[in-house]
Amino acid sequence: MRGQKDYELAMKDLEEGKKLYPEDKDVEKLTHLTLEDIELEKRIRNIMGNSELLKGKEYIDFILDFLQGKKDESPPV
Fold first, then answer.
1. Could you report the per-residue pLDDT of 27-76, keeping only the tens digit for each?
2. 3-state secondary structure 5-70
3. How far does the chain reach from its first CA to its final CA, in angstroms?
4. Which listed residue, of 7, 11, 14, 75, carries a Cα 20 to 30 Å from 34's Cα?
């Protein structure tokens, strides 16, 4: 489900996995990765929502810097 970006269902599956296999480190690892994916998806939606503030090359440069970790999701004012 995580690969399909269905994070809600992925988290439900991981919660069930944790109940069935409480000692399994893979469940913990996948839960952590899924939470990171959820956060990244929120940040990307925020960037896309602000896309009208930046035009053309500025927008592409901003996205590339964000993906490389050089900027947060807030576009320059």
1. 999 999 999 999 888 888 877 776 676 677 777 787 788 788 776 666 65
2. CCHHHHHHHHHHHHHHCCCCHHHHHHHHHHHHHHHHHHHHHHHHHCHHHCCHHHHHHHHHHHHCCC
3. 37
4. 75
